Known about the structure:
Elements: H1 2-29, H2 36-61, H3 69-85, H4 91-114, H5 120-139, E1 144-145, H6 155-160, H7 169-187, H8 189-199, H9 201-206, H10 211-237, E2 239-240, H11 248-258, H12 270-289, H13 294-323
Antiparallel strand pairs: 1-2
Amino acid sequence: xxxxxxxxxxxxxxxxxxxxxxxxxxxxxxxxxxxxxxxxxxxxxxxxxxxxxxxxxxxxxxxxxxxxxxxxxxxxxxxxxxxxxxxxxxxxxxxxxxxxxxxxxxxxxxxxxxxxxxxxxxxxxxxxxxxxxxxxxxxxxxxxxxxxxxxxxxxxxxxxxxxxxxxxxxxxxxxxxxxxxxxxxxxxxxxxxxxxxxxxxxxxxxxxxxxxxxxxxxxxxxxxxxxxxxxxxxxxxxxxxxxxxxxxxxxxxxxxxxxxxxxxxxxxxxxxxxxxxxxxxxxxxxxxxxxxxxxxxxxxxxxxxxxxxxxxxxxxxxxxxxxx
Length: 324
């Protein structure tokens, strides 16, 4: 166990080193990369992906995967926008509905994996497609708009994106959520069981632990994270477009893997995940500062993910050698 922790800690150190190197590189080669505007853009691109990645960390540590993250986030945001603009619900109630819907889908994912015994890849792929379609159905394929800062509900922007003085409020909410999730994962029975299930599910089951309950809870936590992330996304971009969001989950999962969480389960940390989130964000904004088109971001992100997975494969080989 100690050697496993050392292997996980090593990838976290490598991820942090990569974060510094990438930042320094773009500071030298990018155009106005060190400006306050770019720093705000880096944070803005981290808000919602950070929430998705935190939830994905719980699921991946338990030995699962959640491909519905991005589509679910956009579907939740579309539901909130529909209720706010067309049904004229109070904004605070719309926000609760966004979190509630995402939590329900997280519960559904967990039940399909644990009770129906569907492979996590298939179960969450199905809910990903359902959310993509459902978001378009309820909105009639029309975009939904959240209040701008000039409207009566302008507090939505100043509370969840940035204050009137320019303070990045989204970063504050991400930090608070990270601290809560960190305590849950590392200091509570929930986290201990999730780690144990990811390490050896059958051994945990034979010890009398209700494995299905704790695995389902990992997906519920992921759903809550997505719901809160949908609020941050809506406050950041205001406009939510149907049939979008597919692919954002890959950014979140990539951040989790880059941060040192093993795709085979049982190893991971939220600190590493947040390092991975900022690597993805800096990479995105750094390439923009170099006037490179979007495909370059996808290309280089893919290379980073491949490198992280190779390290994960090496770590798993070491883990197996330890068991032998």
